[in-house]
Amino acid sequence: IKSIKSADVACFYSMAKATYLQTKQKRNYPIDYTLDQLAEVLEPGLFFRVNRKFIINFDFIKAIHTWSGSRLKIETACDYEDEDVVVSRDRVKEFKEWLDR
Known about the structure:
- It is built from 2 helices and 8 strands; from the N terminus they run E-E-E-H-E-E-E-E-E-H.
- It is mainly β.
- The termini are far apart.
- The strands form 2 sheets. Strands 3-2-1-5-4 form a 5-stranded antiparallel sheet, with no helix packed on it. Strands 6-7-8 form a 3-stranded antiparallel sheet, with no helix packed on it.
């Protein structure tokens, strides 16, 4: 069992029916919560669920780019097997409002 401060978490992600967190040191740890459960308990000013696979920490966003289909691609400190972190279409408006907090 390892305790990690939420400020040290770059992102949470889902892979192969499991949920993980990645620290700012790029260490990955499996956790016993789903992304749905995490979205309910994480500080909404710090974390945002961008799609069905990722919850990102505001402090670890490096850049945001426009992407196909009115979506946004996010560069984060979260290093996840070369998969793009893209804000889903239905969350883009809410994500932009979250950025302007």
